[in-house]
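chain below, 301 aa
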Amino acid sequence: MNINKLILCFSVLVLFAAIGCSDEDATDYSTLVLANSAATISASVPANMTEQDTSFLLTVTVDPPQVVDIHVDLEQVSGSATLGEDFSFSESVIVIPAYASSASQELKIVSDCIDEETETIQIQIGNAKTSNVTMTPQVLDISLSDFNADALDLTMDWAGSAEVITGQNFIYQGDTLIIDTVDVVVPVDFCADVDLDIYVFKDGADAGIYDAATGACPEHLSVSGWEDGEYTLMANLWSTTFTTNASVSFPITIGYDRCGVFNGLTVNPSTENITNLAAGDDFVPLAKVIVNGSDISIEGL
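prediction:
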């Protein structure tokens, strides 16, 4: 009996010794420690807008970044507008990856040709399920007015690219001219590098309509509520990111759309040269718009 107890005690001592001598003591191992993060919401969405195709970014920013992903739900909590018909999200959740400071999703407003009453949307960003961050959910209240089917919507676009000669260099070896001139050529993105504004003239004078003189590319203009008469769309070069003495041709197209009448048609005005447009007061005619009551027509020049 005593021998058995001795053997048992010896076995327990060996077991403890084995455990105590193990190399697997979890030294230098640690668990993730969550940061005390707070989230802010950025959503520059107008409270009142027309039901036409446009997009807005909904952004959530975290400070400091978290060590795990953060999921922020987007949901319609009220309103008469229909998700998927009148508006949509690129995704129904904003996911901020671990160690990232922000993420965004797109809210899209969808146009249609349906004659309907003003609709409303209430979109909530975040809810009680949002975890690993301190955040106050935000509700966007949006009122959508019906799309004006009588308007003629114009899109002026000059997207494209080219290699442009911006100057010339002389190459010398010592005091000896080796090559007389070498053209300096740079790639140009017309949308990014050319700021073109579109003005509206009537009877040879500025009509004071500056919706397409914003610095955007493309520029947009809605012909709605204009008095009867003949109008001319004029291109005005505001600035470029480069200078050149060479002629640089770039296309300007005008897309036009009228709900239920025209759909995505294009008129091509004459191609202009940048050198024919001097930044300032020079205007080049692009197209003619004729308004006669509810009849609106457009012609390239």
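The domain at 38-147 is CATH 2.60.40.2030 (Immunoglobulin-like). Confidence is low (pLDDT under 50) at residues 4-22.
thats it, cya
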